[in-house]
UniProtKB/TrEMBL annotation:
Coiled-coil regions listed: none
Protein name per the record: Probable membrane transporter protein
Localization of this protein: Cell membrane; Membrane
Transmembrane segments: 12-41, 48-68, 88-106, 113-135, 147-173, 185-205, 217-236, 248-269
Similarity comment: family membership: Belongs to the 4-toluene sulfonate uptake permease (TSUP) (TC 2.A.102) family.
Keyword Membrane: yes
UniProt cross-references to Pfam families, sorted A to Z: TauE
One GO CC annotation: plasma membrane
Length: 270
């Protein structure tokens, strides 16, 4: 039992940080959970071939439940764009399922590289003082919206995140009001996490060396340990967001994300 203590403490620390960041910045906890889970698994000599896949899949499993709570709260405040949810929903779900199934054929270094490159881009975007605006509205073309949502779903699944990290910058760049972008992205999380988690369960079902009580690449004990802390600390993060200087919170998180991304890239290409 004692040999599991570092893993348990590390998972709890990751879950607390993920919950706080979700409340502070409105980002999905996966952007924190995945790298921290990966490093914790690496520290306890977990098989390197499984660490990244297990971290991504377990993060997605927790997002299923946290996104329900978040989406309901935003919907009560009228911040979920139902029309956009219907327009992007099929693409998000198909992309997420494709990403989860494709994970079986992607080496761990490939997943690290995907996470590192996109996380670095997100860190730069968060550090920029002004929101980048590219268009006055979302494209009207159904095909373009389907392509955008499919890409968001695919890469969110491969990164183990709920979609807000990628979709909110895209929506705000198309002049989408920020609170409505965040609220709608919370609902995106559920549409992404369910098919993506199913994909990771199927793609990891027969992989040897997985820890006990795993469904494919999803660690059920780790997911059960994470959920109470992410859900419990998100409200505290939201309260802190109203008492702390938001710009410095964003910059601090951008720095954390940049360092994490660089470390992930070094691990992938080193």
């Amino acid at each position: 039992m004692l040999e599991l203590l570092p893993f348990v403490l590390g998972v709890i620390a990751a879950a607390i940080l993920a919950g706080l960041m979700a409340g502070l910045l409105g980002v999905g906890g996966g952007i924190v959970l995945v790298p921290v889970l990966f490093w914790v698994l690496s520290l306890i000599d977990f098989p390197a071939a499984l660490s990244m896949h297990m971290a991504v899949a377990t993060s997605l499993a927790t997002i299923i439940f946290t996104s329900i709570s978040s989406a309901r709260a935003h919907h009560r405040r009228g911040a979920v764009d139902v029309a956009l949810l219907k327009r992007w929903g099929p693409g998000l779900m198909l992309g997420a399922l494709a990403g989860g199934l494709a994970a079986k054929f992607i080496q761990p270094d490939g997943l690290k590289a995907i996470f590192g490159i996109i996380a670095l881009a997100v860190a730069v975007n968060m550090a920029i003082p002004r929101t980048l605006v590219l268009a006055q509205a979302l494209p009207g073309s159904t095909a373009i919206n389907a392509a955008i949502s499919f890409v968001v779903g695919t890469f969110s699944a491969l990164m183990g995140i709920g979609g807000g990290t990628l979709s909110v910058p895209i929506l705000t760049a198309c002049s989408f009001e920020i609170r409505r972008a965040v609220g709608t992205a919370a609902a995106f999380g559920l549409l992404i996490a369910i098919p993506a988690a199913i994909g990771f369960v199927l793609s990891g079902w027969s992989v040897p060396g997985r820890p006990p009580y795993s469904l494919g690449y999803v660690s059920l004990p780790a997911a059960a340990l994470i959920l109470p802390f992410t859900v419990g600390f998100a409200p505290l993060g939201a309260r802190l967001a109203h008492s702390l200087d938001g710009i410095w919170i964003k910059r601090a998180f951008a720095l954390f994300l940049a360092v994490t991304a660089v470390r992930m890239l070094i691990s992938a290409f080193g």
